[in-house]
Specification:
- With about 400 residues, the chain is an alpha/beta fold.
- The chain has 12 helices and 13 strands.
- The protein has a 5-stranded parallel β-sheet, with no helix packed on it. Strands 1-2-3 form a 3-stranded antiparallel β-sheet. The protein has a 3-stranded mixed β-sheet with strand order 10-4-11.
Length: about 400
């Protein structure tokens, strides 16, 4: 039985919470209660951003580090291409962000996005994404909990991953590209010999691994629509897990047309930015699996909203991830907190060369939930700084027959 004194104490406590910070405080308190692991009490202590740093690695990965006056540091990642532009752009944002409250994550997302006259696109969205990850990392560390607990708690007990099929880890899903005649399908209309070889190669994979392994095919947006349609139909008998980026990502109407002509799911998202880009994909049924990238689709804040939009269309999320440990950890936080998660790309990558301690290992094809505060990982800054250098050179691709420029 509840005593009257208990009711009074709760009312007194609630009044003190509102007085201390209004709705913002309520949001923080009801989301999760600070634990002994927290470095501060976010309900009492003011915390400010003091510094923003960027690091470009030789492999073109771009990291952002945000420091605070509470001694809490957050890490995030940005777009791997246009690395120098992303790093420089983040420093421009620092002129606003230094001195701001990092725990107001959504507020800062809106301020950075709407504070720019030219918005969206890969570079602007990547800058926002990396900073957003770092702010969530700070907030999780401030409260002493992993980010998914700030997003409503886990929706699953473990996270399925794909990468290298391996009986030791139990990973039973992978992705390949369509190759024939020792090259990719970059002709406007590939001939029957090329199509047949692509099919034979995939058939051999299916026979090698059997029906217990899911095998996606990544067209990488490098296939012209007539060839894409030929390959989509020819590969159907071997039931690929999905067709990824069957045509250029912005060719939404053509993608929707192809989707209507095959029973294999179409997936896209690695070159779609923010909720507004994914809206058209969903409305036109251009893909039934969304693959937003946490490093340039808007960060954790935006991926949560994209996942909610997708759920209304019964579409799952399979986060894109070709990058480093912050990218993977942030994606795993999303996977742990949304109901419509499908599978995590490169979730079997351990990133030991950048981490102070290893992630919990993949078992039975699944990654355990990360339990450390924030993103759930600890960057080893000495290891990271040792890899800083000039990013890799951008190179176009050419048709080997006539020398014309092709997609890759």
């Amino acid at each position: 039985m509840q005593h009257e004194n208990d009711k009074v104490n709760r009312r007194t406590w609630l009044r003190s919470v509102i007085a201390a910070g209004g709705l913002a405080a309520l949001d923080s308190v009801f989301t999760t209660t600070p634990t002994n692991a927290a470095q501060i009490d976010p309900r009492k202590d003011n915390i400010k951003v003091t510094k923003l740093e960027t690091f470009i690695l030789k492999n073109s990965w771009v990291f952002v580090k945000i420091s605070t006056d509470a001694g809490i540091v957050g890490w995030g990642e940005m777009l791997k291409d246009d690395a120098k532009a992303c790093a420089a752009g983040a420093q421009e944002v620092a002129r606003y962000l230094v001195g701001q409250d990092p725990l107001r994550v959504v507020y800062q997302w809106q301020a950075i996005h709407r504070g720019a006259f030219y918005r969206g696109g890969p570079i602007k969205s990547a800058i926002l994404s990396g900073i957003d990850q770092a702010l969530w990392d700070i907030k999780g560390k401030a409260y002493g909990v992993p980010v998914y607990k700030l997003l409503g708690g886990p929706t699953r007990d473990r996270i399925r991953v794909y990468g290298r099929v391996d009986p030791k880890t139990g990973v039973n899903a992978m992705k390949v590209g369509p190759r024939g005649l020792k090259r990719g399908p970059y002709k406007y209309v590939e001939g029957p010999k090329f199509v047949a070889e692509v099919v034979e190669n995939f058939k051999a994979l299916r026979e090698k691994y059997g029906p217990g392994v899911d095998i996606g095919i990544d067209f990488h947006g490098a296939v012209q629509p007539p060839t894409a349609m030929l390959l989509v139909k020819a590969l159907e008998p071997y039931q690929p897990f999905f067709y990824e980026e069957v045509v250029q990502a912005l060719n939404v109407d053509v993608m929707a047309e192809i989707a209507k002509k095959t029973h294999i799911p179409l997936a896209t998202g690695e070159r779609i930015f923010l909720k507004w880009g994914f809206r058209e994909i969903l409305e036109k049924r251009a893909a039934s699996i969304l693959q937003p990238d946490v490093c340039y689709a808007g960060g954790i804040t935006e991926l949560r909203l994209i996942a909610g939009m997708a759920e209304a269309y019964y579409a799952p999320i399979a986060p894109h991830n070709p990058q480093g440990p912050c990218s993977l950890a942030a994606s795993l936080q999303i996977a742990a907190s949304i109901p419509n998660f499908l599978i995590q790309e490169r979730g079997d990558n351990e990133h030991e060369d950048l981490l102070a301690k290893p992630m919990p290992p993949v078992k039975d094809g699944h990654r355990p939930l990360l339990t450390d505060p924030g993103l759930g990982i600890t960057i080893d800054e000495d290891k990271l700084r040792a890899q800083v250098g000039e990013p890799r050179e951008y190179r176009p691709a050419f048709d080997e027959d006539d020398g014309s420029v092709v997609d890759w």
